[in-house]
């Protein structure tokens, strides 16, 4: 019944033609092309609207039939991005979506008779139409839907069903409207007004509101009858009208894909950009540190001689050349220096020695090959032939003055390179040399000495005729050529005195060390240091011998200490009145050390791989253990035995001490101390390990579980709310996954970023750890918990961003009408349908822009807070971490826009923020006070000792730490350091190692003044004290303190505090402390040795047992380390103190083995069920301690609780 077009006419019955874009004019407006056109050229005035109304009054509708015009069928305005849809099909589908009843159900509900068969619907309907409809519904009239059924029963007007529905709805609306004009009880209209309104028609309304005359409209404007004014020219058909504009699909995201992808990639690259910036910062900080270290170091510059020549050395095929400087020194030495003027190689020339010089005859004639007998060749490349000629002349002049023979020849450059025996080729020759050397010494078959190239016979001959220089001999021993030991050994082995060792000479020495008896080795040692060759070893020569041995330990003994060792060894052997020793006397001094001498070898590195397969070094296992016998107090013992001979801990062999014969006690004395060990299966061991883990970390597990449960609960609550319980705004239907992910993570992240502040309330944590809450909350793990929260929060922040990426995409492809429904305060549906582009959401909204800035801030903070960067630039970490203020400002602004929900961040943030501000105010009140430095001392290994005034009311416990700042450095950054002073002392002290630019410059400004000796030290600012795990040492009956390097600082305070309290008779739970000090050389931390010495003097109750491990010394039984052990034993025996440290504590050489040590503690303290282990030092050491504790805790014995701190 709907026509395809609408006429327009004026009051004089002129039907005007309509203009159409691209079609010219037409007699009427085409319906399908006029939907929702706001700016139609044919309706641009009120008069044009009047013409449209007059045309509609004159136009007659289509005949009633079963055909719907295409304007409604295929060209109805479409939803969303589709411009067209089928109105009838959409209406039917909408009825299905809304759950409308079927045609029969609707008639029955309204009291109408339900049809039994299809012919009951309407007898006027075309039979073919009825059959086609019945076929669609499988001939079941009860399945006929409401809209098709209502249309089928209508004829000449609405059928019974539609008439009843319309009437029912009208009555309901009328009766329910209190303002209906016929409702006289509302008092709005009088009876006359009601009658007047009832008699008003649409014609009267049109005449009243327009300029149309009564005569231009028929009384009933809905029906045109014969005789009415202005009949239509003809019945409109689609042929007379322009075609409908076809379906178009608007792609809202078209052209935005690349930009959207680039934006996401750019956001993902923020951490990479931050990483790049941090790398640049770390590089420049490293350069600054190098400059400071170079400036602070004593500049011992090696200047090249005036006659030195610069060139490039060619090391061999496929190797890069490098710059060198050649020096020809007056004492017949040829010296090669690198670009830093460090000596690379020294060749000692002898009188009448022949030197061969080969010059290249092509390729610029700038290459030179210098061949010196028994040395590897030197190939030099000069910048020009002139420079090479200058060097040749320079060399010729010196050869004349040195009485050396010089043979000059020429060949092509390629041939010169092939002829050269460089260091690389020399290394291969020496590899063969050492393989056959060991093959002869160890009686190994020549075939087992290693694979050789095809020309093996020539290579072997070349290798066996090769002679080692002093530098190559020293390198094979892993020593320096200038070492006294190398000098003595080389002089002894060089029987012909030509300055080189032949295969036979090296073999003779090696045979003694590999197969010789203790007498042979001691005789060899005696001969080595019998410098004057008179058959006697004087005290001076004995002193020289000992001096050469301690070179391995970085000359850790002074001359006075060494002299004391020599005197004690002479006195112990009964030779105190002798000035010279025979070999028999010398061997008698070593009488108790036959086993050590028998294991002594000459540890040769060899020239390449494979030697280790022939000769396994005899490595010593140095185990610290504790024995316990009846009637004897527990004391530390040291041992140095090979792995094959080392007794197990707890076995009778534990009584053996270095240098003493093994004393085997009755087994019953030790079986009493041993506990029965149950053999467990794999699952039982794992279960025990799990139980110990839970026991050790139960507080951590509980706190992490509670915190995680809260975060998960917040996530689930928000996700459920927006998925099922939120008011029907349409956002969940639009982007369900995105809204659940973004809202759930937003709640969790808000909670995490708020309560992470509590982990940095140092003053509050220090206070709470002394309360009962410390039994339930691991306050010492605050920093670890801070890192854990931060990592979890950044993961959730990434998920939050991913959720919003999904949201932005969906909103960017949603029509404006939908967005205006979801965000009515932001969008207005102006009919354009076009949504905002993705960049509007990212960069032109408050949540989007603050979100991008938050990602940038997080990328900077997280990268600069990484362990790798923090160790290289603490200042960069310190500055970027202060971006947390900007972070919280952005978080508050981010949610304040209330785009989806009302702001909620303040709910989580307010309480932690107030606590944190209060804690910071406490710290700021202390930071304002300047503290004078009483004493500043520069110690070895870059350690600075600062002693400063103790502020009034400053109370602390041993093991606690403080933060200090020094404004004299030009920065107000604070750095944490452990106090090394004890609580009873009047001043505070710190030992600070120069590990970065700040600590290096701190050491520099506290250097002793050169001019004014009365100059005052710069003042400090102090913040603290703060608590940490090491201060709980007194809560265990037995505690083990393990310090490595500068990590010993907290234990200095603990040891002094323990001895002080014991001297006062204070009651303490801690009855025994074992202190393990691991250091490369005791000279690095001599200040700690002074503290230990003080502890030993005041420790009258044997509370402290100290074990010192010096790791610099080689862990192999070569000649020198064997003699060092012998010297240490003599020093301990005679003076009851260590040769190296001067302490009563026994010194061990090598690294400690923690598992046997902890195992022995269980034997000594069988009734102690829990032992505290506190370690501080490099991560590698603390990991070894943790691993040992875990292994021991698998057993059903004492439980080891480990607290550690890395630096």
By helix and strand content, what is the structural category? alpha+beta
Report the strand count: 33
Approximately what portion of the residues adopt beta-strand conformation? 5-15%
User: What Rg, in angstroms, do the CA atoms define?
Assistant: 49 Å
Mean pLDDT: 76
Q: pLDDT under 50 segments (min length 5)?
A: 297-306, 444-455, 607-679
Q: What do these coordinates show?
A:
The protein has 1207 residues and is α+β, with helices and mostly antiparallel strands. Among the domains are: 1-60 and 202-250, no CATH class; 307-421, PH-domain like; 422-483 and 492-502, no CATH class; 516-589, Recoverin, domain 1 (Orthogonal Bundle); 726-925, no CATH class; 926-1008 and 1016-1029, Translation factors (Elongation Factor Tu (Ef-tu), domain 3, Beta Barrel). 44% of the residues lie in helices and 13% in strands. It is built from 44 helices and 33 strands. The protein has an 8-stranded mixed β-sheet with strand order 10-9-8-7-13-12-11-14. It has a 6-stranded parallel β-sheet with strand order 31-30-29-28-32-33, sandwiched between helices. The longest helix has 31 residues, at 782-812. It is elongated. 31% of the residues are buried.
